Each structure stands twice: as structure tokens, then as C-alpha cells.
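User: Can you recover a sequence for this backbone? Please restate the input before giving your answer.

Assistant: Of course. Working from this structure:
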């Protein structure tokens, strides 16, 4: 089974969590694109979706699912999104697609977070995937120096501007054994908009696609 087939299987498995009549949150990325395609088949059962990126909004609209403003919808039933890495506590690294800020907002506004991924994303210790940090442009060098003090090796993701007009630093060299602490520490650096660690609010369910089928991990 290819990695794409594993992503598609995980995405389709998330459909069982969609609550008819309820607005849901939709993340960003290639795995989520498979989810949007699958969700299109039940578009008449849902009023619409709140989206975490301009790219996902465009795809939702293209398949006929209304995109709703998060400010007008209250709390969401579920949030479905991918990840760059996940550990067994269902803490995540996200932001490979530069959508981490809106992803964190929509996840926070949702009652249940369903993470969909292929099995290669499951790791013992987070940090092999460089940790994305969204930064206000004028703070880029300052934040990079602070990230070095925390033991990381930041690099500027050149030619990428987020949907919010900011830049991304990707921080390599971290072995993240206390993800909640690091999420807090990086979040407190002046100029940081969002750190791509989802540990204070981890996923509730992790659906991992593999040749053996879709494995479901739940928060303890
Ligand atoms: C985007 C993300 C994505 O969820 C993450 O990069 C995984 O992407 P993919 O499903 O393409 O592997 O965080 O900001």
C-alpha cells in the first residue's frame, strides 16, 4: 500500500465521526484533501464547515460544502486534520503546510479532535520533523536567536508567507520529551504567533492508515 493510499484510508475512516446536522472543522494538507473528497458524499447531511486555510476553503467550496465563518458558528462538533508527527500521547507536530495558526484555533474551538495520518507519522519522541513556528516578520531574527537558546536549529522557510501574512521558522534538532513545556516556552517568545506543537490540546483520536488497515488510538 502506498503512503497516499494509507492517508486516504485514514481520511475515509474519519467519516464515522461526522455528526449529521453539525458543523465541523476541517484542517489542511494532502490527507485532509482525501477527507474533503470523502465528506463531499455526505454534504447534504452537514450545514457546512469551518476551515483552517484558504486552500482547504477553496477545496470545500469546489465540492459544494459551505465554508462558514468561525465567529458565527459557536463550538464545533469535531475537527479533522492531519499531522507531521504524532506520539502515543496523541501530541502532534503540525504546520508542514504552514496552516498551523488557523489549525490551532479551529482545533481549540472543537469538542473532539480527530487526527488522520499514515502510520509513518507515529513516533516515540517528537522532533525529528522540524518544528514549524509562525512568526511576525519583523521578529524573525530575534525569535530564531531565542529558539537557539532552547536547543533548536531554526531555519527560515523562504518564499512562504502564511495566510495570516507571517513567516515560518522550522526548528530542527529538538528531541521533545516534554511537549507541553516546550509549547508553552516557545509560545511565550515575543513575536511568536503560534508554535506547531499540539500538546496542551492534543488529538482525542488518531486514525493511522497502514497496509493492515486503519488503526485507532484514543487519548488515555
Ligand atoms: C498543515 C499541517 C498538515 O496537517 C501536515 O503538514 C500533514 O500534511 P499531510 O496530510 O499532507 O501529510 O499541519 O499545516
Amino acid at each position: 500500500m502506498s503512503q497516499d493510499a494509507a492517508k486516504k484510508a485514514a481520511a475515509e475512516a474519519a467519516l464515522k465521526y461526522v455528526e449529521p446536522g453539525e458543523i465541523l472543522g476541517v484542517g489542511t494538507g494532502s490527507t485532509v484533501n482525501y477527507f474533503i473528497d470523502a465528506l463531499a458524499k455526505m454534504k447534504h447531511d452537514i450545514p457546512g464547515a469551518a476551515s483552517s486555510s484558504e486552500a482547504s476553503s477553496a477545496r470545500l467550496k469546489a465540492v459544494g460544502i459551505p465554508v462558514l465563518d468561525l465567529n458565527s458558528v459557536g463550538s464545533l462538533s469535531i475537527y479533522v486534520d492531519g499531522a507531521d508527527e504524532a506520539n502515543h500521547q496523541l501530541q502532534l507536530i503540525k504546520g508542514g503546510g504552514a496552516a498551523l495558526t488557523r489549525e490551532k484555533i479551529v482545533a481549540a474551538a472543537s469538542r473532539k479532535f480527530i487526527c488522520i495520518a499514515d502510520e509513518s507519522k507515529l513516533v516515540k519522541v517528537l522532533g525529528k520533523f522540524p518544528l514549524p513556528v509562525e512568526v511576525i516578520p519583523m521578529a524573525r531574527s530575534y525569535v530564531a536567536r531565542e529558539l537557539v537558546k532552547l536547543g533548536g536549529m531554526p531555519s527560515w522557510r523562504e518564499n512562504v508567507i502564511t495566510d495570516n501574512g507571517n513567516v515560518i521558522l522550522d526548528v530542527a534538532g529538538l528531541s521533545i520529551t516534554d511537549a507541553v513545556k516546550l509549547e508553552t516556552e516557545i509560545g511565550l517568545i515575543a513575536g511568536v504567533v503560534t508554535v506547531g506543537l499540539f500538546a496542551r490540546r492534543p488529538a482525542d483520536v488518531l486514525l493511522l492508515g497502514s497496509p493492515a488497515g486503519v488503526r485507532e488510538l484514543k487519548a488515555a
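That completes the design. Helices lie at 3-13, 30-39, 54-62, 100-108, 140-149, 179-187.
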